[in-house]
Amino acid sequence: TTSLVWFRDDLRVRDNPALLAAAADSAAVALYVLDEESEGVRPLGGAARWWLHHALEDLRGELDRLGIPLLLRRGAAAGIVGGVAAALDAEAVYWNRRYGGPERQVDAEVKAKAEEDGRHAESFQASLLHEPWRIQTGQGTPYKVFTPFWKTVSELDFRKPLDAPEPTQRFRGRLPESEELDGWELLPRRPDWAGGLRKAWTPGAAAGHELLEDFVDGALADYPQGRDRPAVRGTSRLSPYLRWGHLSPFQVGHAVAARRGANHGEAVRTYLGELGWREFCWHQLYHQPLLAERNLRPEFDAFPWERPGRKRSGNDGGASPSGRNANRGGPSAAARVRAWQRGRTGVPLVDAGQRELWTTGWMHNRVRMVSASFLVKNLGIDWRVGEQWFWDTLVDADAANNPASWQWVAGSGADAAPFFRIFNPLTQQAKFDPEARYVSRWVPEYASPEYPEPIVDVKESRQAALEAYQALREDN
Ligand code: FAD
Q1: How far is CA 5 from CA 53, 63, 120, 247, 251, in A?
Q2: With a 6 A CB cut-off, is 282 part of the ligand 1 pocket?
Q3: In what order do the strands lie in the sheet with 70-74?
Q4: pTM
Q5: Are 227 and 365 in contact (CB under 8 A)?
Q6: Interval between CA 401 and ligand 1 midpoint (Å)
Q7: Whose CA is nearest to atom 48 of ligand 1?
């Protein structure tokens, strides 16, 4: 008999319960669907497409070694999975669960169709340590604050990682049609902007495991301090591997937790707390599928944020960081956004971060916070504009972590930083990059006369943001 295993954000053969089930006592065939058609499914950004191309090549190699063929298809997933299962006459279809709204809708359709056709359909927990519906407050509602969420969750055990399958059967029939990966054109052609990505990253499971080992043997020990220093390799840089499922949180969590002894207790706790933030973001997305579109705190709907090509979203004529600026003939919203995207705001830490992002597809967490805050609070731009830019340029662009973090920075999210706590990008630089090693790596001209003045006055724009926030509170 044959089983179909449908790969999604879990591009690995180890610790993959769906793959294990498919290969247990039948011949497994694997399928990946590039779905840009199903309603509501967010199309991948450019950097993500680049990563996916190499990730699928890597997965194909890993599956080859197990004698499991990988089929590639493009289109609306529900129809394709059903069709491939039928063509294979598969007895069962397996996958690991996803938690976004439109994705769950697609999965429900696949399940219904499979069962209608008399196939066994089964899904597994593989991408989150804890299922969102299992973690609730005493009142049976989702947690809105991280600390109590993590207190509850961190006391729970999570399972050990699973081995890769050892298939005993091979598929011997005729394989349904598969598309060519090159035909999907996931890689940029002209201009080829991916040189910096190639230099910075090796997508795939083996590279992920190597990074993980290096991290637990090295930077983990100093993680509580090192993680705030963008100039050093103080963090694990595992985010794209977790995003694409080359590594599971179970694998990362256990590898880190195994270092609890040897005076690493605090480092392990801090790191697991960051995995906890990942869980918290995904639980938010599960409960609020429109996380990337809607303010979690609706009072922010009236905030006079600007977007290029659009009038201010708020309706009052009160102060807004950018409105004020525009009144003085300052740069338009479009010009401010462009300067931010290109790392030409005249604020060194922000520019360094944005250039790191553009070149490597990744940005240090401390700098993400500062740069996002600058866009939203000093430049007065709607957080969704920044979220979309990150979505397009990050190799770890994540459907939950990205919008949840943007809402956290903007003040509109769950357990968000209070709006009035506005990062000062200059103080942040002095504190976390005191010798300007990070800044001079990415903005070598920052101390020279060529470097522009800040596009907005940091203090004035901060004041204007606070006034806009005050007006919002008075109106509510
Ligand atoms: P480490 O410090 O080594 O952390 C380990 C892992 O924990 C990370 O790989 C990640 O999976 C998780 N993690 C760490 N911090 C956070 C956090 N604050 N929220 C959620 N998970 C976290 N992370 C993404 O994975 N994808 C995104 O699209 C993304 N967008 C962000 C946007 C903004 C505006 C901000 C402020 C943060 C964003 N983050 C995002 C969170 C965080 O910046 C990255 O996860 C982190 O920088 C990745 O580097 P690392 O793997 O070295 O992290």
Answers
A1: 19, 12, 12, 18, 21
A2: no
A3: 70-74, 27-34, 2-7, 92-96, 120-124
A4: 0.96
A5: yes
A6: 7
A7: 239
Please write the tens of the pLDDT for every residue from 251-264.
999 999 999 987 78
CA distances from 438 to 127, 131, 198, 202, 231 (A): 33, 38, 21, 23, 4
- Regarding the beta carbon of 394 and ligand 1, being less than 6 Å apart is answered yes
Residue-by-residue DSSP string for 130-176: S-GGG---TTSS---SHHHHHHHHHTS--PPPPPPP--S----SPPP
Q: Give residue 255 CA to ligand 1 midpoint distance, Å.
A: 18
Determine whether the shortest distance from the Cβ of 238 to ligand 1 is under 6 A: yes
CA of 363, closest atom in ligand 1? 47
Catalytic positions:
274, 277, 305, 365, 383, 406
Query: 310: which 2 tokens?
Result: 């659009």
Q: Is the CB of 9 under 6 A from ligand 1?
A: no
Exposed/middle/buried for residue 207 (C-beta within 10 Å: 0-12, 13-18, 19+)? middle
**Residue 71 β-bridge partners:** 31
Distance from the alpha carbon of residue 75 to the mean position of ligand 1, in angstroms: 30
Q: What is the pLDDT of residues 67-124, one digit of tens each?
A: 999 999 999 999 999 999 999 999 999 999 999 999 999 999 999 999 999 999 999 9
The helix (run of H) or strand (run of E) holding residue 123 is: strand 120-124
> What is each CA distance from 428 to 377, 460, 464, in whole angstroms?
15, 17, 20
What is the whole-number distance in angstroms between the Cα of residue 300 and the centre of ligand 1? Answer: 24
ipTM of the complex: 0.99
- Is residue 312 very low, low, confident or very high in pLDDT (cuts 50, 70, 90)? low
Query: What domains can be seen in the chain, in order of their start residue?
Result: 1-127 (3.40.50.620), 128-159+204-287 (1.25.40.80), 298-471 (1.10.579.10)
| Ligand 1 contact via 415 beta carbon (within 6 Å) | no
Q: What is the pLDDT of residues 125-141, one digit of tens each?
A: 999 999 999 999 999 99
State the pLDDT confidence band at 329, using cuts at 50, 70 and 90: low
Ligand 1 pocket check for 38: Cβ under 6 Å:
no
The amino acid that residue 355 corresponds to is R
pLDDT above 70 for 315: no
Provide the 10 A C-beta neighbour count for residue 176. Answer: 18
Out of 278, 364, 382, give the residue to mutate to test ligand 1, the one with the largest number of ligand atoms within 8 Å of its CB.
Answer: 278
What is the DSSP code (8-state) at residue 29?
A: E
Report the separation in Å between the CA atom of 238 and the middle of ligand 1, taken as the mean of its atom positions.
Answer: 9
